[in-house]
Amino acid sequence: MVGRGLKTGNSRLRRWPWVWGLLLLCWLGLGGPGWAVSLGDPLPEWAQPMQVGRQRLRGVEQYRGQDQIRAYGNEAGRVFWIQIRSHSELPPDYREYLGEYQHFPVEVVEVVPLRARRLCFRQGDRSAEWQVVGMSGRFQAEAISEDLAPQP
Amino acid sequence: MPVRTLGNSRFKLLGLNVEVAGANAELLLDTGSAGLRIIATAAGRFGLERTGIPSTVTFGDGTQFIGVLARAPFSIGGIPSREPVTIQLIDRITCVDALVASCSENLFGEGRPFAGILGTSLDERSPDRELFSPLTRLPGNFRSGYIIQTGGFNSTQGLFTVGLTAANTAGFNFRQFPQVGSFPDGTPIWRDEALQVAYSISNTSIQNTLSPTVFDSGSSDIFLNVRLLGAAPFSTSTLPPGAEWRAVLAGAFDYRIRVGFPVTPSRDRIFVNGNQGAQLLGMPLFFNIDVAFDVEGGRIGFRVR
Predict the structure, then answer these.
(1) In total, how many domains does chain B have?
(2) What is the value of ipTM here, to two decimals?
(3) Which residue range(s) make up the domain with B96?
(4) pLDDT tens digits, A39-88
(5) Which residue in B107, B127, B221 is closest to A112 by CB distance?
(6) Burial (0-12, 13-18, 19+ Cβ within 10 Å), B269
(7) Is the CB of B215 inside 8 Å of chain A's CB atoms?
C-alpha cells in the first residue's frame, strides 16, 4: 500500500512540469482553446489559405465558447480582419478584438435601429471599423483595419 | 385592424395595438424577431403570472431588454388568445457600450413610440425558446397567418389582418419556406430566410445575383451584405443618389428603387456593407408590397400594389 502510494505520488510529481508548461503556453496565447486574436497580431504559424468571397487569404478559424472566430492576415502576416459568429446572449466585445485601435477616437458610422451598428476608431491615417448585426443567440460581428488591409 | 407608421426623419417602423394582461399597448410590429416583449409598467395585471426566470435580449445596435419571462392573456383586435402566452416582461432597457455609441433605447417607454416589440417571425428568432409569435395562440382560423398592408411611405395608416382566407389572399403570390423543426409545444418552425432573391445594382458586378433574404418589418431600411453578392465592400455605406437597385423573387415580385436625392430613410436608403448572413428587406419593401405570412403552411405571399 505504502509503495503504491509513493509510486502514485512520484507520477503526480513527474506530471506537474507538463501541467505548468501547458498553463504557460495558454497564458502566452499559444494554446488552442485559449487563443485570442486582435487586429495587428501576427498570424499564427498554423494559418491556412482560406476562400473569402472572391478573395483567397491566409487565415485561421477557432472556436471559443459559443463563438466561431476567423482571422485573416495581410501580406505581412498581420491580422487585418476578424469575423465572429456568436450564439451568446451578449454581442461580442470590441475591446477583445480591436487591439490598440480601441483607444482611438470613435465615431458612429451607422445605426440601423435594433438591427446593426458600425463604429469607426480613427487616429491620423490609421483606422478600424467594428460592426455588429443580429440579436442574442445569433450575432455576427467583424473588426477590420483599413490601414492593415491588403491594397487592391 | 389598423397598423400605424411611426418614426421621424431618420426611420419609420410599424406600431400595432394589442392587449396584454388587460392593458392596451402599442408595440413595434417585427417580422424579424420572435415573441412578445413589453415594458412591465405597460402591461396590465389581469391574469399576469410573473416568473422568476430571467430573460435578457440584446439587439445588434446594442439595445438591451432586461426582465423576466411571464405568462399573460393576449388579444389583438378584440380576438383573445386561446390561452395565456409566454412573454418577456421588460424591467429595464439599456444600451450596451453606451459610452461609445447610442442605441434604440429611446424608442421604447412612456411618451415614446413603442411599449415593446411584437415579434411575429415564423422562425426561431429569440434566445428564449419559449418565446415565439403569440399570433400562433389565436383561436380558429385567426392563427393561420397574417397580412401587413401599410399605407405606403407617405401614409401613417395601414391594415393588419389576422387569419388568411381565400378572399383576403387573392392576388398574393406565395412561396414556401422549409420546416426546420418545432417549438416545444409542437408549433412548426419555418426557416424564413431561405428564399433566394436575385439582386442587381447598377454599375456594379452585382447583376441578378441570388442571395438568401429575410422580409423584416423591424428593419427600417434595406440592409445588404454585398460580399454575399460576390462584391467587395462599397466605398459608401449606402447606395448613392441615382443608383438603381432591383430585387426579384421569381414568380412573386420585381421590386426596383432608384435612389433619390437626398437619400430618404425607410424609402430609398439601402445600406450595403452589412456582415449578416442574409439580406434584409425592410420597411421600404413593406411600403410598396403587401406581405402575407402563412403561419400554419410556412409560406410567404407578396402582392405588388
Answers:
(1) 2
(2) 0.90
(3) 2-161
(4) 999 999 889 999 887 778 999 999 988 899 999 999 999 999 999 999 99
(5) B221
(6) buried
(7) no
